[in-house]
């Protein structure tokens, strides 16, 4: 009996909000996105998924799961795409999550076909696993948030606002905060009193090239008195969603990213009328952030060591086999660490089990994994060395990351920003220049004995050979950010290489773009060649679609759906859609007239009155009405002069009657558009009639006023 | 024997929730921790399979080790485990003694209290089967007494009030988070009139200190909330300093909130007596050899604002210690639920309640 009841209550979200969280807590589901569909952690993520990369020697996903377990959530769906088998086997082999006493039920949902977050969400919706409000979180979140407060906020907002759809968790920081993403910072426009999010705008990169955001006034219409525009928030991608989120993804199958597509889409949509709220914690001891680039990897690692995320600290020993203990100055050591007497362990350092540190070695602000062998007189600063690595005597590491099982020879110099992948071997006395990434297997990359040494193993991974550009961006960033020396700048440049790569790759791949999994960026990057090609395709296909609909007498909804599908898959604007529709309609009219089936007037009335309704879902704003008129007149003027005036007159009239074109817009267009005078002659009468009607109306109004 | 064989899945399912609570620091109140652990051990004893007391001791030690590792800086779980071990050992030794018909030495005050009850059980000793089930119930009884003792700890402490506080005295307490101190003062009000100065304990316990002051004021005790920095200035007027404790070590030193250390140093300058209030369960048989390893370090965000980026960037280490170690010579009297003792006498009470062989659990 009891479980049935529970389900019932969960199925109706309204009940939940009122009955308090006890009911909700019974079964709260969470979706963990283990794949971000980004390439920021390449080359490391080529062999290991991001969520299994070690952060303070613990796989990233453990932090997210810890948060979920702590939150009292009991069902977790891990959405896996890349390296799904690794994630699955990790969970299966984990004593903690596999034990019967574990309060979390973890289910791996593998959706190999997904190429974006949007795809995953749609896939999940199709499986019908989610029954009520759920938590959507990415698998790389580190937080000590009090979930009950968040849930309370969510339920309050839900009770107040029935259109409430999503609660986003944001964390206070400052615009140039090291834990804030430099890769995709975003500005939020919030209602000051209610924390309702009115607008979301991502700002491309932190280098200050773009410093303004454009907000449409319409969006602010129903806002409260005070607005705040904030550019100092860390977006940690922890969202409490209600069920309509999934269906929104389903309806808008062009949505790919959670923020740029979904949140923006919802906020700017006239149709959805849903609201999004932001939860910003006021407690200074609450910490939330996302490991989404090397820069944040670095800063979050340091934050954890500096106990900003307490009680989520290494000596909490999240996984069972850990045994960290804390020493003053934020030094953490596990059991069986062997330190030579003369080595110096300085602040903010973490050393894993069975690691050996040699004589005269200095380690500062770094994390050393398990079973590492660090030689004598090594200097390691601000670096991350993963498990089982060997560092030879006299090497110098600064702001670098060394993957597991790597071997670094003696007297090797690693310059800031260099990343050494898994199982790489670097020979003695070598120097790795800044921002070089080296990986074990690289079929497409060139081996370089100069860099890795004669006996070295590995290839240079270059996302792109755009070093000149990247350097210039580095300097630009440096000058702009001033005091922000350290890994951030360097990793930042690394990021900019990355974004550059994305662009480049797109250009090259051109048509394959949609099918390559790693370039799922927003649609901002359009290229003309691509556009033209797709335009033609769309033109042909679209015309055929509408004609087919008319000929086979489909209902309008079907035709619109087909057209919309086409629009999304080809990625064209509504202008194109209108053009195609008008062309198809005119084509049909001409067909009727030329075959003498109907007279021009009748043909136009028939076609436009039954199919003109299609524009209802193609024309939304005033500008678009004018656009429609321009298209109409352009296309009609191409027709036979014998009847084109009639067609124009009738079509405009019908569209006016259908309320697709508004009087004002027609008049406005009439004023502005002075071309094609010949066609317009008949239409003029209509316009005059409109104007008169308008005047009468206004006269009447003024009469009313006088009275 | 590995821990796997000893710790059965049933036991694991019992201890796992407690461990994760401890790990997440959700179980903070000392009394709650003590009670939870005691109840947990009771359950463990009832579900675990053992044929002789040695095995049971082994199980409890293993469980104790797991609990200890989940939050090594918390002393109380270890204390409770050792107390339970003490109960088990006392029972078994007695039985062995009974078999040898040697009357036990009056080795401790605890056995003084418990011997007479046991004589009736002598007959059953011979049959091993019944022995275990019997032992089980005796141990359960012992733990129940322990739970009673913990839950009624404040009452025991309150008994000494009249002897300790004078009329119109000014008291200072730097530990507003201590439940025992609160009860102690409220109870004292029924017999005496006095003024209490309370330090704010910024940043970690500031809310608790406000609550504490409010509670005292509700009981019509004249209460003054003072900033932490002024403790030296007010010390000349203070008659007694009353501190709560997080743990008391065998040498008479104790752990208390951060900020207490400076207050007791001030008290020493002014020769003001310092009373430490501690339930018996806070007494630990351990010696504080490495003081730094005992102190829990908390959230840095309480000390500095995380969003103050420019400042954070230039700070090497932010440390927010949650506890202070107070050396024994700074404390005059420990007020426990079994009476008041000088810090030099704590070792004796420890011996009465713990067995030396359990000091190390691994």
TrEMBL record, chain A:
- Where on the tree of life does the source sit, at the highest rank? Eukaryota
- Alphabetical UniProt keywords: Cytoplasm, Initiation factor, Protein biosynthesis
Where is the protein localized?
Answer: Cytoplasm, Cytosol
Q: Where is the W2 domain?
A: 532-700
Q: Which InterPro entries match?
A: ARM-type_fold (IPR016024), eIF-2B_epsilon_N (IPR035543), eIF2B_epsilon (IPR051956), LbH_EIF2B3/5 (IPR056764), NTP_transferase_dom (IPR005835), Nucleotide-diphossugar_trans (IPR029044), Trimer_LpxA-like_sf (IPR011004), W2_domain (IPR003307)
**What are the protein's GO molecular function terms?**
guanyl-nucleotide exchange factor activity; translation initiation factor activity; translation initiation factor binding
Q: Provide GO CC annotations from the record.
A: cytosol; eukaryotic translation initiation factor 2B complex
Recorded hits in CDD domains, A to Z, give: eIF-2B_epsilon_N, LbH_eIF2B_epsilon, W2_eIF2B_epsilon
User: What family is reported?
Assistant: Belongs to the eIF-2B gamma/epsilon subunits family.
Subunit-level organization: Component of the translation initiation factor 2B (eIF2B) complex which is a heterodecamer of two sets of five different subunits: alpha, beta, gamma, delta and epsilon. Subunits alpha, beta and delta comprise a regulatory subcomplex and subunits epsilon and gamma comprise a catalytic subcomplex. Within the complex, the hexameric regulatory complex resides at the center, with the two heterodimeric catalytic subcomplexes bound on opposite sides.
Q: What is this protein called?
A: Translation initiation factor eIF2B subunit epsilon
| Organism name | Candida verbasci
From TrEMBL, chain B:
Q: Name one GO cellular component term.
A: cytosol
Which residues does UniProt assign to the signal peptide? none
Q: Name one Pfam family in it.
A: IF-2B
Keywords per UniProt: Cytoplasm, Initiation factor, Protein biosynthesis
**What's a Gene Ontology MF term here?**
translation initiation factor activity
Query: Where is this protein primarily located?
Result: cytoplasm
Name-wise, this protein is Translation initiation factor eIF2B subunit beta
């Amino acid at each position: 009996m009891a479980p049935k009841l529970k389900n019932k209550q969960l199925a109706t979200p309204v009940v939940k909000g009122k009955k308090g969280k006890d009911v909700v807590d019974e079964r709260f589901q969470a979706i963990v996105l283990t794949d971000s569909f980004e390439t920021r952690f390449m080359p490391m993520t080529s062999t290991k998924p991001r969520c299994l990369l070690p952060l303070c020697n613990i796989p990233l996903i453990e932090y997210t799961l810890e948060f979920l377990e702590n939150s009292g959530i009991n069902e977790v769906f891990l959405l896996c795409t890349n390296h799904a088998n690794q994630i699955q086997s990790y969970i299966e082999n984990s004593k903690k999550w596999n034990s019967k006493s574990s309060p979390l039920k973890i289910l791996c949902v593998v959706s190999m076909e997904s190429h974006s977050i949007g795809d995953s969400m749609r896939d999940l919706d199709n499986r019908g696993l989610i029954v009520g409000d759920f938590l959507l979180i990415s698998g790389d979140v580190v937080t000590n948030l009090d979930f009950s407060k968040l849930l309370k906020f969510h339920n309050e907002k839900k009770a107040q606002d029935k259109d409430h759809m999503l609660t986003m968790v944001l964390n206070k920081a400052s615009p140039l905060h090291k834990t804030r993403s430099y890769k995709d910072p975003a500005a939020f426009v919030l209602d000051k009193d209610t924390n309702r999010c009115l607008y979301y705008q991502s700002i491309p990169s932190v280098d200050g090239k773009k410093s303004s955001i454009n907000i449409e006034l319409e969006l602010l219409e129903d806002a409260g008195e005070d607005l705040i525009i904030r550019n100092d928030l860390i977006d940690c991608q922890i969202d409490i969603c209600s069920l309509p989120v999934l269906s929104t993804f389903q309806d808008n199958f062009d949505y790919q990213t959670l923020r740029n597509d979904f949140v923006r889409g919802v906020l700017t949509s006239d149709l959805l009328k849903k609201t999004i709220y932001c939860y910003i914690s006021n407690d200074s001891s609450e910490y939330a952030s996302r490991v989404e680039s090397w820069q944040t990897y670095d800063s979050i690692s340091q934050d954890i060591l500096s106990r900003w995320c307490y009680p989520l600290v290494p000596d909490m020993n999240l996984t069972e086999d850990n045994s960290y203990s804390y020493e003053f100055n934020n030094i953490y050591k596990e059991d069986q660490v062997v330190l030579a007497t003369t080595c110096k362990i300085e602040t903010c350092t973490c050393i894993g089990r069975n690691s050996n540190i040699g004589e005269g070695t200095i380690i500062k602000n770094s994390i050393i994994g398990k079973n590492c062998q660090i030689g004598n007189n090594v200097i390691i600063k601000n670096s991350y060395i993963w498990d089982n690595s060997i560092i030879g005597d006299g090497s110098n590491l600064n702001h670098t990351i060394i993957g597991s099982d790597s071997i670094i020879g003696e007297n090797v110099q690693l310059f800031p920003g260099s990343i050494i992948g898994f199982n790489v071997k670097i020979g003695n006395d070598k120097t790795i220049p800044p921002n070089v990434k080296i990986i074990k297997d690289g079929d497409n990359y060139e081996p370089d004995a100069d860099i890795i040494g004669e006996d070295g193993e590995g290839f240079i991974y270059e996302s792109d050979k755009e070093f000149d550009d990247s350097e210039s961006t580095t300097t630009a960033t440096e000058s702009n950010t001033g005091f922000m020396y350290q890994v951030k700048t360097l990793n930042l440049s690394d990021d900019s290489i990355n974004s550059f790569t994305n662009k480049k790759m797109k250009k090259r791949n051109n048509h394959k773009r949609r099918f390559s999994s790693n370039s799922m960026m927003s649609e901002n990057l359009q290229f003309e060649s691509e556009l033209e090609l797709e335009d033609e395709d769309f033109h042909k296909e679209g015309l055929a679609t509408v004609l087919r609909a008319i000929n086979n007498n489909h209902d309008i909804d079907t035709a619109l759906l087909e057209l919309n599908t086409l629009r999304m898959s080809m990625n064209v604007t509504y202008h194109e859609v209108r053009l195609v529709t008008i062309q198809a309609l005119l084509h049909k009219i001409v067909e009727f007239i030329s075959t003498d089936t109907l007279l021009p007037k009748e043909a136009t009335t028939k076609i436009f009155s039954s199919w003109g309704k299609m524009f209802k879902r193609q024309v939304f704003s005033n500008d678009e009405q004018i656009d429609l008129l321009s298209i109409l007149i352009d296309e009609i003027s191409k027709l036979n002069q014998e009847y084109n005036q009639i067609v124009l007159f009738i079509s405009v009239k019908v569209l006016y009657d259908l309320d697709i074109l508004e009087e004002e817009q027609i008049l406005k267009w009439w004023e502005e558009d002075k071309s094609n005078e010949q066609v317009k002659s008949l239409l003029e009468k209509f316009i005059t009639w409109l104007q008169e009607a308008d005047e009468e109306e206004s006269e009447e109004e003024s009469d009313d006023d006088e009275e | 024997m590995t821990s796997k064989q000893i710790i059965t899945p049933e036991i694991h399912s019992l201890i796992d929730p407690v461990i994760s609570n401890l790990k997440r620091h959700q179980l903070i109140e000392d009394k709650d921790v003590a009670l939870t652990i005691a109840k947990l051990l009771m359950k463990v004893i009832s579900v675990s399979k053992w044929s002789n007391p040695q095995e049971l001791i082994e199980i409890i030690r293993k469980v104790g080790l797991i609990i200890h590792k989940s939050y090594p800086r918390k002393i109380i779980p270890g204390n409770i485990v050792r107390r339970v071990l003490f109960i088990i050992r006392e029972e078994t030794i007695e039985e062995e003694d009974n078999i040898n018909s040697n009357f036990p030495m009056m080795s401790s005050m605890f056995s003084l209290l418990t011997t007479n009850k046991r004589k009736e059980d002598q007959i059953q000793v011979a049959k091993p089967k019944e022995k275990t089930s019997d032992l089980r119930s005796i141990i359960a009884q012992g733990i129940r007494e322990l739970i009673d003792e913990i839950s009624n700890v404040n009452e025991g402490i309150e008994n000494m009030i009249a002897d300790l506080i004078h009329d119109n005295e000014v008291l200072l307490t730097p530990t507003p988070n201590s439940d025992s101190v609160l009860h102690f003062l409220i109870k004292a009000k029924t017999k005496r009139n006095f003024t209490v100065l309370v330090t704010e304990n910024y940043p970690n316990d500031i809310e608790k200190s406000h609550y504490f002051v409010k509670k005292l004021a509700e009981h019509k005790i004249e209460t003054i909330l003072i900033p932490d920095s002024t403790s030296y200035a007010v010390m000349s007027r203070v008659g007694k300093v009353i501190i709560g404790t997080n743990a008391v070590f065998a040498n008479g030193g104790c752990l208390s909130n951060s900020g207490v250390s400076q207050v007791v140093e001030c008290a020493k300058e002014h020769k003001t007596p310092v009373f430490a209030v501690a339930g018996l369960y806070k007494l630990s048989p351990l010696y504080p050899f490495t003081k730094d390893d005992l102190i829990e370090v908390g959230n840095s965000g309480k000390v500095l604002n995380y969003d103050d980026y420019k400042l954070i960037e230039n700070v090497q280490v932010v440390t927010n210690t949650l506890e202070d170690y107070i050396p024994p010579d700074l404390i005059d009297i420990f007020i426990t639920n079994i009476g008041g003792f000088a810090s030099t006498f704590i070792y004796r009470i420890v011996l009465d309640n713990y067995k030396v062989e359990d000091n190390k659990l691994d």
